């Protein structure tokens, strides 16, 4: 009983300490926190909001890229405005941004500059430490959310801090700080159920060290260079990884190709009255790069499906495979304003391991970014009358060189056993 009382006492003591720290942080650093508003010039009203915070005391403000992305794409339609803790408003100037890590660096005018700013921490906290997320959820005013620092998200190409705490719409771009009020990350996303994600300290430090101010005419070129560098690094890492293989039906397929690609299996074996057996292995990166509200990129998706039947004749089975191929879609959203129509090439090929496949390779170009494409590949094996391996991948935002290298590696990774 005494042990139970001790645990309860410690729990409530820690909770009270966390609440007291949160209140102190809010009172001390509230003037350094701002709401960022995207103002539609025609209507004069805000179209979206986020959060931002002052650092280093010279008027630099950190936020997310996605908070100000409308301005990046349409600088003549929008302006960026701040709302401070006293209800004052003014204009913000975009200095630079990191589209890969969803960060932006803004400059506030002298009239809106607060005497209070946040300092960047020297290191990330220990796993299990309490940290505090600050922001402006749902346009309700600034709040502080205590939570737990769970370290960097495992198996991720785009580094994120796993934060146990509520990050709600409008808090994007706000700081996450330690108990000393030092920035350890930036709010970026939530998966619900007290699962939040933060951009880690080193990415913020790199942004501040960039020391550049872009002109609106340079925005698209800046994005293009970042996308090129990122996709090159990702594809090179994928192709240099040890692709672990496993059996799917009669085929040997890549079962795990990288630590940042998550794979799941499934089948319809438990379903009644089905005319064919479907066994699948689906892998994807589970993350993407936000460019604008209708365009995301940086995704990788790989799927294998073994189909076999004893109930369908050869014509029916062929029609089933054709339907599977016809309904394959790219993994990332895009519109006609951002990409061209797909151009496809169809071939009957035999890979380096003797597997014959009827394949379709399609690509669509990005209108704003030279030599970047979305790629969709799908093939069906042609070696059995009542069994077929359907293989598929999509890559978004890759160069022609990366597309060709990955396609060859992917096609040659399969064999019959």
Could you give a short description of this structure?
Helix 4 runs parallel beside helix 6. The chain has two domains: 213 residues, Thrombin, subunit H; 193 residues, no CATH class. The chain has six helices and 25 strands.
What does this structure look like?
With 417 residues, the chain is of the alpha+beta class. The chain folds into two domains: 2-214, Thrombin, subunit H, CATH 2.40.10; 224-416, no CATH class. The protein is 23% helix and 40% strand. The chain contains six helices and 25 strands. The chain has helices at 2-29, 65-73, 201-210, 219-240, 314-326, 400-411; strands at 33-40, 46-55, 60-63, 78-83, 89-98, 103-108, 119-120, 130-135, 143-152, 161-164, 175-177, 182-192, 195-200, 244-248, 251-256, 262-267, 277-284, 289-292, 295-297, 300-308, 343-350, 356-365, 373-381, 387-398, 415-416. It has a seven-stranded antiparallel sheet. β12 and β13 (195-200) form a beta hairpin. α4 runs parallel beside α6. The protein starts with a helix and ends with a strand. The model is unreliable at 4-14 (pLDDT under 50).
């Amino acid at each position: 009983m005494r042990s139970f009382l001790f645990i309860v006492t410690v729990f409530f003591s820690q909770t009270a300490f966390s609440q007291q720290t949160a209140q102190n942080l809010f009172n001390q650093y509230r003037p350094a926190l701002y709401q960022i508003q995207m103002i539609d010039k025609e209507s004069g009203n805000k179209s979206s909001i986020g959060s931002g915070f002052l650092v280093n005391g010279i008027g630099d403000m950190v936020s997310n890229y996605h908070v100000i992305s409308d301005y990046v794409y349409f600088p003549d339609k929008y302006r960026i405005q701040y709302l401070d803790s006293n209800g004052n408003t003014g204009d913000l100037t975009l200095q630079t941004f990191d589209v890969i890590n969803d960060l932006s660096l803004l400059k506030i005018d002298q009239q809106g500059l607060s005497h209070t700013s946040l300092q960047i921490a020297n290191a990330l906290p220990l796993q299990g430490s309490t940290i505090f997320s600050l922001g402006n959820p749902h346009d309700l005013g600034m709040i502080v959310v205590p939570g737990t620092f769970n370290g960097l998200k495992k198996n991720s190409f785009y580094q994120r801090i796993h934060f146990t705490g509520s990050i709600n719409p409008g808090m994007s771009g706000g700081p996450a700080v330690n108990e000393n009020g030092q920035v350890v990350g930036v709010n970026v996303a939530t998966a619900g159920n007290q699962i939040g994600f933060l951009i880690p300290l080193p990415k913020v430090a790199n942004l501040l060290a960039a020391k550049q101010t872009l002109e609106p005419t340079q925005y698209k070129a800046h994005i293009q260079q970042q996308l090129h560098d990122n996709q090159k690094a990702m594809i090179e890492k994928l192709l240099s990884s040890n692709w672990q293989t496993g059996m799917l039906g009669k085929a040997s397929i890549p079962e795990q190709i990288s630590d940042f690609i998550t794979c799941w299996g499934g089948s319809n074996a438990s379903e009644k009255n089905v005319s064919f057996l479907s066994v699948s292995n689906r892998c994807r990166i589970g993350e993407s790069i936000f460019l604008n509200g209708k365009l995301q990129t940086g995704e990788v998706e790989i799927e294998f499906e073994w189909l076999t039947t004893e109930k369908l004749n050869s014509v029916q089975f062929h029609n089933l495979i054709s339907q599977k191929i016809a309904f394959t879609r790219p993994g990332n959203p895009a519109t006609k304003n951002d990409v061209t129509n797909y151009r496809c090439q169809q071939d009957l090929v035999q890979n380096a391991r003797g597997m014959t496949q009827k394949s379709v390779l399609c690509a669509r170009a990005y209108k704003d970014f030279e030599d970047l494409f979305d790629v969709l590949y799908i093939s069906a094996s042609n070696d059995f009358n009542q069994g077929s391996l359907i293989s598929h991948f999509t890559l978004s935002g890759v160069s022609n060189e990366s597309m060709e290298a990955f396609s060859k590696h992917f096609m040659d990774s399969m064999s019959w056993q």
